[in-house]
Amino acid sequence: MESGMAYEKDDLMINLKATELRLGLPGTEEETNEDHHQDQSSLSSSALKNRKRHSPEITREEKSDHDGEETAPPAKAQIVGWPPIRSYRKNSLQQMKKSEAAEISGMFVKVSMDGAPYLRKIDLRVYKNYPELLKALENMFKFTVGEYSEREGYKGSDYVPTYEDKDGDWMLVGDVPWDMFMSSCKRLRIMRESEARGLGWGV
Amino acid sequence: MSEDDDRSPPSDAAATGITASGSGGSTSVELFPAPYPDQVLENVLENVLCFLTSRRDRSAASLVCKSWYRAEALTRSELFIGNCYAVSPRRTTARFTRVRSVSIKGKPRFADFNLMPHNWGAHFAPWVVAMAKAYPWLEKIYLKRMSVTDEDLVLIAESFPNFKELVLVCCDGFGTTGLAVVANKCRQLRVLDLIESEVMDEDVDWIACFPGSHTCLESLIFDCVDCLVNFEALERLVVRSPSLKKLRLNRYVSIGQLYRLMIRAPQLTHLGTGSFSTSDGMIQGEQEADYASAFAACKSLTCLSGFRETLPELLPAIYPVCANLTSLNFSYANINAEQLKPVICHCHKLQTFWALDSICDEGLQAVAATCKELRELRVFPVDAREDIEGPVSEVGLQAISEGCRKLQSILYFCQRMTNAVVIAMSKNCPDLVVFRLCIMGRHRPDHLTGQPMDEGFGAIVMNCKKLTRLAVSGLLTDRAFSYIGQYGKLVRTLSVAFAGDSDNGLKYMLEGCPKLQKLEIRDSPFGDVALHSGLHHYYNMRFLWMSSCKLTHQGCREVARALPRLVVEVMTRNEVDEEDIVDDEIEILYMYRSLEGPRDDVPKIVQIL
User: Fold this and answer.
1) DSSP classification of residue B565
2) For residue B401, which of B122, B271, B428, B462 is within the disulfide window of CB 3.0 to 4.6 Å?
């Protein structure tokens, strides 16, 4: 079977043809088909035939979509074992992406404390609940948080943990369920109790 | 029989080693106290042959005559078996009786990509059982793509009192239980290297099982053992292993723990970090200085790897060692060009560099600007899909070819490529021995000209006169293969996927490449006629793999009939319905020469013709 590709003879393409580096003997020309610079659809007819016969290799999903069609497979088809990357490496990269996705998705929030010269940043995903978060903040900034009650907020401490939510409002840490807090918290501020009192919080 | 290349299989008579000469023949001459002249000659020969180390030389020596055959067999201490099914343990141990080191390779490479049934074979068990009896002084075992069980490891630990080195590459079937026994019982153990193997977490603290006293450990590589390690035990182990030069940790070892190990082992030459990140993504100022000083203290460090979960802000810690590095493996570090540049600009001596394509063409340009001694480059994709933009392209490859003229080996994954750049590389890097280009989009042509990639690969085989290994990709016609057949006279390993137009493609390769040993082909339109064109050559090859091509049962059966010493395995990869099999077509052909005939451990899915 002859090669299904041919080279463009049109002079308009001469810039390519003239600079083309060939290894064949001078005078050997072949026919090309014009479409070949479109990636996925550039297939010789035998390659198309192959696609059909290779159906066991293609996942079942794709097979049921394209049985009997003489077209290029969808670009997103997952062919087994292609590209040839060892599963060990693939799995390692998956794990890596998962842990890095945590960083990229903005779970890192700034934490400021009234009176402190610079801010800190923490990854909210590291904590499973409010007690863990508050303990970490206490350690980081060397203060204690006081006792939380729904009615009165935090009692018995010089500082009150607050956060800015998605709507831009300043909220008291601990009022909403942890998951809701995690998804709505944009930044944290450890507010001085005196200021908090001014806003009607605390005792 | 060793799996040496370029040899046709010897006749059976040679295997029995019976001499026709008038002397007592065998060298068990305890019954004949007076040395025969032949015996003296054999003693001399043995003493001389001890100096032959190359297995090709030994193979040649063994063919001279029967007495050389015997002497060579007695003096061969390193055994290499390229295909575990080409020869049996029994035959091997019968011929070679004084072996200290064994290397065995099992599954063909395409098994790594899930193209082979999981239980296909390559079991180490029959080998270790035979060797336990025959080679009590065995010191070293190197296995690649074999199935190894915990029981096998226990047998190693119990049978070889002088055992020194265990290296398992791409193996599976064993777990931490087996490792614990090896660690504990092999008191002379110097090397325990587990590389890209699948190790089962059997919840055993194997690190703690090393003997409590001084160890002889020189190399401990366990980055693929994906289980938590007992860090205190590891630290104590490092402290009592003064000869330790190579240490590669897994991702459960934090950077703080790495620091503690490094200050205990400044003599390290090869280091694989665990996780190169902090758990909260933050660095305390003094920490950064500490890490750098720990690296600076390792004055002999030449080879750095690991970097799972890399926090780029921590990379400055390695600056002190960059100038001495000959090998840097960033292939798990998802860093960009800007993060790479400050590191790579120091690495003037670098010879081996592995990276992810996250470094982009720009990162490769930085490599090309500094690493003039580069011999080996591998660029892996972060995102191994076919239809995406792709951060590296012909631009990066062009830069490398211009900057790294001494390049010998390249593996390059990309989404687009041009013939011009591949041709340029063939001219700029004449020392290339290994050229593996993987254009991830199947059937992708030259993205500038729209032409097949024939000319590029053609130039590689034509201009790189030392080329022995080639992997092709992209849109390729039979013409590419005619170039390979015409110019690829030294090519031993060839990897083909989604390429070619007709049987001619395969014919060109089989008829044109006299040194071809390992040919692996997938999804290419080569059929029975092409298969038959290689009959003259198959006995000289280690194996031929063809999957999803155009072969039929009938065609393969004819080959099996024509070549009785070839084992022709035909299989389906998984449970495929009867309706899916069209026209007697087969899915996978894997055939290899063998002295043993069909193996007896074949799973149902495999048929031997």
Assistant:
1) T
2) B428
Helix (H, G, I), strand (E, B) or coil at B469: strand
Domain that holds residue B58: 39-76
* Residues B458, A44: C-beta atoms closer than 8 Å: no
Side chain identity at residue B402, one-letter code: E
Distance from CA of A148 to the nearest CA of B (A): 26
Q: Into how many domains does chain A fold?
A: 1
Q: To the nearest whole angstrom, how far is the Cα of A13 from the nearest Cα of chain B?
A: 9
Q: From the list A22, A56, A85, which residue is nearest B384 (CB)?
A: A85
| pLDDT over 90, % of chain B | 78
Q: For A49-71, how does the pLDDT look when each residue is reduced to its tens digit (9 = 90+)? A: 333 333 333 333 333 333 433 44
Beta-carbon separation of A42 and B478 below 8 A = no
Whether A156 is covered by a domain: the verdict is: yes
Asked if B477 and A4 come within 8 Å (Cβ–Cβ), the reply is yes
**Partner-chain contact A122 B280, CB within 8 Å:** yes
Looking only at the bridges linking them, the beta strands covering A147-149 and A153-155 are: antiparallel
Domain with B51 in it: what CATH number?
A: 1.20.1280.50
Torsion of CA A187, A190, A196, A201, to 10 degrees: 80
Q: Does some domain include residue A61?
A: no
Q: What is the pLDDT of residue A50?
A: 37
In a domain, A202, yes or no: no
Kindly identify which residue of chain B lies nearest to residue A22, measuring between CA atoms: B455
How many CB pairs below 8 A link A and B? 168
Query: pTM for the whole thing?
Result: 0.75
Nearest Cα neighbor of B176 from B151, B194, B213, B150 is B150
Within a domain: B515: no
Strands A170-172 and A159-165, how do they pair?
antiparallel
Phi, psi of B496 (to 5 degrees): -130, 135
Q: How far is CA B535 from CA B10, B40, B143, B153, B492, in A?
A: 18, 44, 30, 40, 17
**Average pLDDT, whole number, for chain B?**
90
User: How does pLDDT run across B249-301, given as a tens digit for each residue?
Assistant: 999 999 989 999 999 999 999 999 988 988 665 666 666 668 999 999 999 99
How far is residue B137 from each of residues B76, B170, B224, measured CA to CA in Å? 13, 26, 29
Residues of chain B positioned with their CB less than 8 A from the CB of A47? 443, 498, 501, 525
Rounded Cα–Cα distance for residues B584 and B562 (Å): 20
Residue B61 resides in a domain: yes
Q: What is the ipTM of this complex?
A: 0.82
Residue B60 lies in a domain: yes
